[in-house]
Amino acid sequence: MLAVNHVTKKYGTFTALEDITIEFHSGVYGLLAPNGSGKTTLIKMLATLLFPTSGEILWEGMDIIKLGERYREVIGYLPQEFGYYKHQSPRQFLHYLAALKGIDRAVARRKVPELLELVSLGDVIDTKMRKFSGGMVQRVGIAQAMLNDPRILILDEPTAGLDPKERVRFRNLISELSRDRIVILSTHIVSDIETIANRVIMFKDRKLFCNDSPANICRTLSGNVYETWEIESVTVPYFPLTQRQENGRTLVRFVCESGCPESARPGEPTLEDVFLYVYRDQVM
Amino acid sequence: MFIYWLELRKLLSSAAAWGFLAVCLLFNLFIIGNSGNGYADYIGAVSKETGVVLGESFRDRLSFLTTDGGREAQYLEWLKLETHGVTDVFEGYETGYIGERYIAAAGATGYFAQAMRDKYAALQKVVDGKAKRDESLSLYFAGATYARHQLLFKSLTGWLTTEGALIAALVALLSAGYEQICQTGDVVYSTRKGRRIMLPKLAASLTAGLGAYAILALLTLALYFGMNEYGEVWRSNVSSLFNYRVDWIAGARPFVTWHSFSVLTYLLAVLGVGAGGVLCFSLMAFGIGMWVRNSYIAFLLFLAANAAMVAVPGLMPQTWTAGMAVRYFSMLTSVWLWLKHALWFTDGDMDILWAHFETLGLGVSLAALTAFCVLAGIRFGKRDLT
User: Fold this and answer.
1) If you average pLDDT over residues B306-311, what whole number do you get?
2) What percent of chain B has pLDDT over 70?
3) 3-state DSSP call for residue A15?
4) Residue A144's Cα: distance from chain center in Å?
5) What is the rounded CA–CA span in Å between residue B9 and residue B100?
6) Where are the domains of chain B?
7) Cβ-Cβ contacts under 8 Å for A217 (sequence gap 6 or more)
8) Residue A283 has what pLDDT?
9) For the residues of B295-354, what is the DSSP string, one character each?
10) pLDDT attached to residue A284
């Protein structure tokens, strides 16, 4: 178990995260919040790149800072801005990272092509990465995160740069991987996690806002989401969520807490609805 | 070890480092190209016949030498004149006056004055030993000695140390800041090896720095010795009566080294200290690179730190004991060792208080800069990597 206990992170007088307590067991955890809400700060602390100002992060009951390499050898990490050596091929780069991860060279020789095949880069395994598209680079990043078969897989905005087909492949891959490990997936794209996350963690105002299953989180708006064709009727105090085209007309989804218009019909709340509503001050 | 090789390979793939090395070689080629000295080459050539010990045998062999006239005849004439009736310059040579002049010029008192006197008392014993062994009765390049010695041991090896130090510093900064430049820090420092990768990075950058210095030295000196005839002069003593040094306080005086050096062993010793200096600058740059993660700012800081070390002794009032201490101890820093490279293995000058200052300074600098690197590494291990 990975436990974040009352962790606060400050940069001088600025507080990036305040008193965060979360427990991670096997499964997919989606960190869902707008940019700048502290997701990456938490992720970097989990990757030991940042140190908590107060509080502690425990892996199987021991402080991850004290565990040092014994902790880092169980993590796989894909950072938000995945850098790479442009003059190297994916094979060379992954072999370098395999050495840093303490993977035996013979094992790495077998595993590197396997992983690159898994992320559909088998045909460019020896091509210099300077020629790669953003999506290809991101797939190299995913492959390197899985090199050491990590018990904790930490992915910060992993689907950035992937096309829709790659996104689906990626989600399926994460679902498979999550059976016997902790997958922590940070994103502000709701569709990345709504189908695969066992739990969704949201931050608001630098604090933990919720840590629950997607269904329970959706339930918080139960009975408050409506849809209407009459776009002009969705004004204050209603909160508009999304619009979509249906039969050539625009259907508006909105949150209504009381006194809903008669023309509106109730809708099933989605994670996206909750996201838009919770972060209405930041998103809209 | 494997990670060390991978780090080294990263540095070896740097086009900028190779480009800089090529520019340095071109510059050295320019220096060598303008160093022609027909008389010195003639002496180098005839030394194979005459040997380099100025005695009866030398004079006999010299008298048998013939030329086809022209310039060589003139060179032979000069050589005969210069080596005729020479005497051992160390016989009866007193060194005490040098120390007294330096003490007076520096206004040194107390411990500093005593240390200076002690140094020249020790040098006197060395000079007496050299006199006993007739070390000064060595041909070297006769009348062309000063020019050749200055060219090789002041200009060329000086530039080699400068270039080696600069390349080593650049390579060290590249190594320390590589992940910052490539934005791979998050991935690299979160691996099992983590921030401890700085150790193989340091080893790789020291190797690359030394390697660059070795390549520069090998190619430059191969070119130099290919173009300048040394013959048997390799075996000449650098404390030859024809060699001398000049400073504005003690005037012109024999070139006295603490040990007995032939041209070959002196060159090897100078290259050895040069390599030590390169290591020092490499350590300093790497430490700064760990402290300041932006390589460009780190390079400016590296230059500023060295400039400050040069400037500080001059800015300290020499009427204070502390000011004087700063001045004398500064001479043990790598940048001052580099500036005083032409005096390595000699008694030095007014600023040098201790015998074997280059060895002492190298030891002190290596120890201090290693400690600095360790501290920078500890700090790097505990800091946030944002």
Assistant:
1) 93
2) 100
3) strand
4) 17
5) 54
6) 2-382
7) A200, A202, A210, A271, A274
8) 46
9) HHHHHHHHHHHHHHHHHHHHHS-TTSHHHHHHHHHHTTSHHHHHHTGGGTTB---TT--S
10) 41
Q: Is-contact B246 B146, C-beta < 8 A?
A: no
Residues paired with residue A4 on neighbouring β-strands, in sequence order: A22, A57
Q: Could you write out the DSSP letters of every residue in B76-139?
A: HHHHHHHHTT---TTTT---HHHHHHHHHHHT--HHHHHHHHHHHHHHHHHHHHHHHTTTT-B-
Hey, is the C-beta of A81 within 8 angstroms of any chain B C-beta? yes
CB distance A49–B189 less than 8 Å? yes
- CB neighbours (10 Å) of residue A209? 15
B384/A49 touch (CB, cutoff 8 Å), yes or no: yes
Put simply, the answer to whether A100 touches B184 (Cβ < 8 Å) is no
Write down the pLDDT at residue A280.
Answer: 81
Region for residue B246 given its phi and psi (left: phi exceeds 0; alpha: psi -120 to 50; beta: otherwise)? beta
Look at residues B88, B86, B83, B87 and name the one whose alpha carbon lies nearest to residue B128.
B88
pTM: 0.89
Phi/psi for B252 (5° steps) reads -80, 135
Residue A175 in tokens: 């679902």
A73/B contact by beta carbon, under 8 A: yes
Query: Are B172 and B289 contacting, i.e. CB atoms less than 8 angstroms apart?
Result: yes
- B-interface mutation test, from A94, A96, A130, most B Cβ less than 10 A away: A96
Instruction: Give the full edge-to-edge strand order of the sheet including A249-255.
Output: A239-246, A249-255, A225-228, A265-266
> Can you read off the two tokens belonging to residue A184?
């922590």
Task: Give how far Cα B263 sits from Cα of B42, B238, B257, Å.
Answer: 17, 6, 12
Q: Which residues of chain A carry a pLDDT beneath 70?
A: 234, 282-284
Is pLDDT above 80 for B319? no
* Contact between B184 and A77 using a beta-carbon 8 Å cutoff: no
Angstrom distance (rounded) from CA B153 to CA B141: 14
Residues 6+ apart with CB under 8 A from B129: none
Q: Please report the pLDDT score of residue B269 as a whole number.
A: 97
Output the CA torsion A257→A258→A261→A265 (10° steps).
50
Closest to B347 in 3D by CA, of B79, B114, B133, B99: B99
Report all structural domains of chain A as residue ranges with CATH numbers, in order of start: 2-217 (3.40.50.300), 218-283 (no CATH)
pLDDT given at position A249: 81
User: 3-state class of B14 per DSSP?
Assistant: coil
CA distance B167 to chain A (A): 22
- What ipTM was predicted for this assembly? 0.89
Inform me whether the pLDDT recorded for B194 exceeds 80.
yes
Q: Please provide residue B128's backbone torsions phi and psi, each rounded to the nearest 5 degrees.
A: -60, -40
Region of poorest pLDDT, from A207-221, B205-219, B308-322: B308-322
Q: How far is CA B45 from CA B230, B235, B249, in A?
A: 7, 13, 37
Q: CB neighbours of B318 closer than 8 A, spacing ≥ 6?
A: B106, B107, B324, B327
Lowest pLDDT segment from B28-37, B210-219, B328-337: B28-37
User: What percent of chain B has a predicted confidence (pLDDT) above 90?
Assistant: 72
Using one digit for the tens of pLDDT, what is the confidence trace for B103-142?
999 888 889 999 999 999 999 999 999 999 999 999 999 9
Identify the residue among B14, B180, B187, B199 best suited for mutation to test binding to A, counting A beta carbons within 10 A and taking the highest: B187
Distance to chain B for A102, nearest Cα, Å: 7
